[in-house]
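Q: Here's a chain of 191 amino acids. Please give me its 3D structure as tokens.
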Amino acid sequence: LLVSAAVVAASVERPTPGPRRPDAAVAADRATASVRAAVRTAVATALDRGAANPVVTPADSPYGRVLNDSRPYRDSLAIRAYVRVKRALAATTVAVGDATATVSLPAVDDPEDLRAGKRRVALAGRGNGTVAATIRNVTLVVRVDGRVVRRENRTFTATVASPALELHDRVVAYDDRLSKGAVAGPGFGRQ
């Protein structure tokens, strides 16, 4: 009798599992993690390709005029980063149960779209061989059974190991000093 009472008590008093997170929340969290990885990889590739083939003079075309004449290299890196991140996000869809999360950036169909994309990207050299890349207004959409339950714009920042900006800044500083005349101020012309 004692053994059967213990067995019944053990089977009746099983702890109930804690509250389960809704599938939509889990899908959003996983999509966010995927975006962070996609941003890091896409920006690293953009910086590597931009350093290998730098743009130092904008093209005389509608798309070339998107680049600022005083900073074509940095603008071209931002554009490369935007296009690569957009491409990476297009392949990011997370499904959990009946919830699906997607992330996206607006398409680039004309020079104004490209200019807007460039403005969504901020690249900042950290001085230690890394670049902090910030992508603004990434749209996260979560659907449950095809119905949108959450839509928000998010900002993602990733730090990428790349000396691209640091080396560019050094080259520009060297060129400025090299170009100064003997009376124009400190520079190689005075030495």
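Q: Can you summarize the key feature?
A: The chain has a mean pLDDT of 84.
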